[in-house]
Amino acid sequence: MPKPMTEAGSPERTDVLIIGAGMSGLAMGRQLKRAGVQDFLIAERADGPGGVWRANAYPGAACDVPSHLYSYSFFPNPDWSRKFAPQAEIKAYFERASTAFGLEAHIRYGKSVRALTYEEVEGVWRVAFEDGGTLIARAVISAVGQLSEPFSPEFEGRDQFKGQIVHTAEWTPDIDMTGQRVVMIGSAASAIQVLPHAAKAASELAVFQRTPNWIIPKPDRAFTGVEKWLFRHLAGYHWLYRMGSFALHELRWPAFRSGGLAAAFTRRRLTRRIKTQVDDEAVLDQVLPDYAPGCKRILLSNDFFETLNQPHVRLVTDGVQRFTPTGVMTASGEAIDADLVILATGFKATEFLPNLDVIGRDGQSLKDVWGDSPTAYKGVALSGFPNLFTLYGPNTNLGHNSIIFMIERQTEFVRRQIMRLLTADAISVEVKAEAQSAFNARLQKRLDQTVWAGECPSWYKSPDGIIVSNWAGPASRYALALSGRDTDAFALEAP
User: Fold this and answer.
1) Are 398 and 447 found together in one domain?
2) Does residue 422 fall inside a structural domain?
3) 378: closest CA among 462, 253, 477?
4) Are 429 and 312 part of one and the same domain?
5) How far apart are CA 285 and CA 117, in angstroms?
6) Are 313 and 336 in contact (CB under 8 A)?
7) Same domain for 192 and 114?
8) Are the beta carbons of 15 and 138 closer than 8 angstroms?
């Protein structure tokens, strides 16, 4: 069992520290337990497991991947209420998973990691927490993901606004939109989920859109009692349903290759749908994208355009110039009054470890090494930073399938490297610089052939235009890439 962390004095030690008890951290903890590793800890800054599904509780929050695919293959849930589960159900699922995997004894809630410093002689990481505590870990696994830190733009005059400002990732139950004049800044994934709820409650709703989005129907519905019975009692039915869903989503990958027939067909089909759903020609010009579908994240919604058609809802496309005491001023000088401003402005997705200072070999800072374009070997290992691994790291996001499939492959791969380190009682295991460089050169070459390389702003790219978030291929190709031990790519430093 893990040893408790002390707040002062000599730091406690553990074999492995996992940062985060969300989707990735829980899967990694299960992998370690099944491998026989008992001395590990999971540091979670929140008061419970679930990660982004604990933090994001705004109205309408739900997954855009089918429920039975957005769940662990080794922990099926026959009782999903809908094809696309709402936030509360997903949060409860991960809470059950934490208990079922026997991880609660390993998790320390309210523990936020501030810094990691590698000590080369001993081959350990010195971990500093925000509360002043410290810990020594032989290996560290970051499971904070790409969507953990909200991005809130710094608008001029924001501190003068007399109303309420809330980011969707910081929503609280006491926020009431009833009868309010609401301004929503952003029109992407979280915004289109909040939008119909805001429109139903607010007296006026202004939605600020920077770039229009490609939106497809969301084939959501409640599961019937018969379906739930089959999931629970008919042997193999859940597995077949899940595999069918996975295969269907894999078939969508060709649409993300630029210049192909699949991409052209997708664009034509989505354009036709938008034109049939938008009443106002002026609004149509504003919401019809001029870039290839998939260049930005494709969104799922059945009521976005219907909501925009309502008389008390308006779309604003000339941007926010500044906040005023009574609302916001647009770039064209129009004053829009507001009681509540909702920031649906996303996350610091391309920074990966935005609030963590990591110092590796020779005192090198990970932030300096990464610069604006983070890279990793297969998304999980970093040259110059021994015994450190990342889950949902650089170039492991998907635009067409379930990220949980990717995470399961990563945790299996990381487990193999951790066991090499512990079994050999080695000082370190570290990916070689040439292996990481060669991998990323091949990866970026393939990414150049995708729609993500097109001219559109998206969180898939770093500020210098490098695609740092997405994997360049179907999910099954990633599984193949992580299927081995990769002993030639890693150096094992003997004691």
Assistant:
1) yes
2) yes
3) 477
4) no
5) 52
6) no
7) no
8) yes
| Helices 23-34 and 87-100, axial angle in degrees (round to 10) | 20
Residues 188 and 327 in one domain: yes
Q: H or E element: which one contains 314? A: strand 313-316
* pLDDT score recorded for residue 254: 94
Domain count, the chain: 2
- 85 lies in a domain? no
Question: SS3 for 116?
Answer: strand
Residue 6 has pLDDT above 70, yes or no: no
Query: Nearest to residue 103, comparing CAs of 54, 33, 17, 15?
Result: 33
CATH code where residue 460 lies: 3.50.50.60
Hey, what are 324's tokens? 């005023």
Which whole number is the average pLDDT over 170-197? Answer: 96
Q: Do 317 and 434 reside in the same domain of the chain?
A: no
Q: Across-strand partners of 389?
A: 141, 381
pTM over 0.85: yes
* End-to-end Cα, the chain, rounded Å: 25
Closest CA to 37 of 102, 100, 96, 97: 102
Task: Quote the radius of gyration of the chain (alpha carbons, Å).
Answer: 23
Helix (H, G, I), strand (E, B) or coil at 323: strand
For 200, the domain range is 158-213+296-343
Q: What is the mean pLDDT of the chain?
A: 95
Q: Dihedral sign for Cα 406, 75, 23, 88, please.
A: positive
Residue with structure tokens 């991960």?
94
- By CB atoms closer than 10 A (0-12, 13-18, 19+), residue 33 is middle
Per-residue pLDDT band at 9 (split at 50, 70, 90): low
Count the helix, strand and coil residues of the chain and give each as a percent rounded to the nearest 5.
35, 20, 45
